[in-house]
Amino acid sequence: MTQLRHMRDAVVEARGFVGDRNRNALDTDRMLTLALVKDIEIIGEIVDVGCVRRSP
Q1: In a domain, 48, yes or no
Q2: Which tens digits make up the pLDDT trace of 1-56?
Q3: In this structure, is residue 35 part of a structural domain?
Q4: To which H or E segment does residue 47 belong?
Q5: Going along 1-56, which residue ranges are E strands?
Q6: What is the pLDDT of residue 18?
Q7: What sign results for the dihedral spanned by CA atoms 18, 24, 28, 30?
Q8: Total number of domains constituting the chain
Q9: In which domain, by residue range, is 41 found?
Q10: What are the phi and psi torsion angles at 38 (to 5°)?
Q11: Exposure of 10 by Cβ count < 10 A (0-12 exposed, 13-18 middle, 19+ buried)?
Q12: Upper half-sphere CA count for residue 53 (Cβ side, 13 Å)
């Protein structure tokens, strides 16, 4: 359950970072890009751990 909470928090945070910015912001705002990549990494790691736990 904690992992789902972390995943949700990362999604909420990423959506907050994006706000009303457009695609061009990813090309011009390095801090935005790095922040989004970090949140995507958090989500990916949680998904990866979940897949490992479920595999036989």
Answers
A1: yes
A2: 788 899 999 999 999 999 999 999 999 999 999 999 999 999 999 888 776 566 55
A3: yes
A4: helix 30-54
A5: none
A6: 96
A7: positive
A8: 1
A9: 2-8+22-54
A10: -60, -45
A11: buried
A12: 7
Structure tokens of 6?
């972390």
Give the Cα separation of 3 and 45 in Å (integer).
Answer: 10
How far is 38 from 5, CA to CA, in rounded Å? 16
Identify the DSSP state of 29. Answer: -
In sequence order, the 6+-apart residues with CB closer than 8 A to the CB of 17 are: 32, 35, 36, 39
Q: Model-level pTM?
A: 0.80
**Is residue 40 included in any domain, yes or no?**
yes
Residue in the block written with tokens 């706000």: 19
46, 6 in Cβ contact below 8 A? yes
What contacts 43, CB < 8 A, 6 or more positions away?
7, 10, 11
Tell me if 17 is assigned to some domain.
no
Integer Cα distance of 31 and 52 in angstroms: 32
